[in-house]
């Protein structure tokens, strides 16, 4: 493919890529040695060495959380500091067995490495479906496509009907999600207490009610300096729990510098998402992050978003800054919104490097 000369050419190429239903992996399997123009970013080169290698995101050890009050207070303080200054932290001794973590990475890999004709049955852009496979949820709105394919599954508030999920990863996705739901409840308690609120406050606000799990597959890229695995963005929900394999590539923006989040064996990455920043009135930060493309792969990651999706009734619940966190000196920074309104805006905008929160700021 040569350069895209007109908007019409770009639309034609996006449509052709989408209608192939074979994703980025299909390009790699066809022997592509150059990336198609729809994946090219405006920057001439995306510098991997632009990261600040002196900085590392905080790690919080959850060992002893339930057994020792002094340890619990120490953990809450670490979670508070990480949520305020980084918006990201890794957790260890979180209670999810290593075999389940390995299993879900393997399950996502197996789905993406199936015969393309089997995968095509699940390919759709209807995000109200329980299980979706596609490449780039924002394919037609983002400035450039990302070098990855993805599966999406709604796991809560209504557990999925196993029959609509692919057999190759059904059981492990359900098992892993059940573990993540329990872990999420613990984390929301810690976050509530870190805000100086009752431990059940965020769960009473239904922050842990919805769970939306996505499994990314990043094939090796022939020209990784010209595109990204996932472009610069923030997450749309309340909280994200991420498991990544040992490939690396995740970076967080901290003090205007990119910082690598190297894989830590047995660890999970936790990050504050937009709706939690909104309800905490900017006390906790939803921070920009991205994934570099690599010439090796595939890289596998599974992100679990705590939020409801488009179709659930709870998506119409109204959220605004928590009253106890606002004062005359610290007034509400955001107008109230619903999850449905928020993610509709987020999806239509796409991953363009700007925060979807700006639309909801009070001028």
Automatic annotation (TrEMBL):
Q: Which superkingdom?
A: Eukaryota
Q: Name one GO molecular function term.
A: L-ascorbic acid binding
Q: Kindly give the PROSITE patterns that the UniProt entry links to this protein.
A: FE2OG_OXY (PS51471)
Look up the coiled coil feature and give its residue ranges.
Answer: none
Gene3D superfamilies, per this entry? B-lactam Antibiotic, Isopenicillin N Synthase, Chain
Q: Which SUPFAM superfamilies did the record assign?
A: Clavaminate synthase-like (SSF51197)
Q: Could you tell me the keywords of this UniProt record?
A: Iron, Metal-binding, Oxidoreductase, Vitamin C
Start and end residues of each Fe2OG dioxygenase domain:
207-310
Q: Please state which protein family the record places this protein in.
A: Belongs to the iron/ascorbate-dependent oxidoreductase family.
User: What protein name is recorded for this chain?
Assistant: 1-aminocyclopropane-1-carboxylate oxidase
Q: Which organism is it from?
A: Lonicera macranthoides
Q: Which gene encodes it?
A: ACO1
């Amino acid at each position: 493919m040569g350069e895209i000369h007109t908007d019409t050419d770009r639309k034609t190429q996006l449509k052709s890529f989408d209608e192939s239903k074979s994703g980025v992996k299909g390009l790699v399997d066809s022997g592509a040695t150059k990336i198609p123009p729809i994946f090219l970013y405006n920057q001439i080169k995306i510098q991997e060495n632009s990261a600040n290698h002196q900085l590392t995101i905080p790690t919080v050890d959850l060992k002893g959380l339930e057994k020792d009050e002094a340890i619990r207070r120490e953990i809450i303080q670490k979670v508070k500091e990480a949520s305020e200054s980084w918006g990201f932290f890794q957790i260890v001794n979180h209670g999810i067995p290593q075999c389940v973590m390995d299993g879900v990475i393997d399950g996502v890999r197996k789905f993406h490495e199936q015969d393309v004709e089997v995968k095509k049955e699940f390919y759709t852009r209807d995000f109200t479906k329980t299980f979706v496979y596609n490449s780039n949820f924002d394919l037609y709105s983002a400035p450039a496509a990302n070098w990855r394919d993805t599966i999406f599954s709604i796991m809560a508030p209504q557990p999925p009907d196993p029959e609509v999920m692919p057999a190759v990863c059904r059981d492990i996705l359900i098992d892993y999600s059940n573990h993540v739901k329990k872990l999420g409840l613990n984390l929301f308690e810690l976050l509530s207490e870190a805000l100086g609120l009752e431990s059940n406050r965020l769960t009473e606000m239904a922050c842990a009610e919805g769970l939306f799990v996505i499994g990314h597959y990043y094939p090796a890229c022939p020209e990784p300096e010209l595109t990204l695995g996932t472009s610069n963005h923030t997450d749309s929900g309340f909280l994200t729990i991420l498991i990544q394999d040992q490939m690396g590539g995740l970076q967080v923006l901290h003090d205007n510098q990119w910082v690598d989040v190297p894989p830590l064996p047995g660890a999970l990455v936790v990050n504050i998402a937009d709706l939690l920043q909104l309800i905490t009135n900017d006390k906790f930060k939803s921070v920009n992050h991205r994934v570099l493309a690599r010439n090796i792969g595939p890289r596998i990651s599974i992100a679990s978003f705590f939020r409801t999706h488009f179709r659930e009734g709870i998506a119409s619940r109204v959220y605004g800054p928590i009253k106890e966190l606002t004062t005359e000196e610290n007034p509400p920074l955001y107008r109230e919104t619903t999850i449905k309104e928020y993610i509709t805006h987020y999806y239509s905008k796409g991953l363009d490097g700007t925060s979807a929160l700006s639309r909801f700021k009070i001028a």
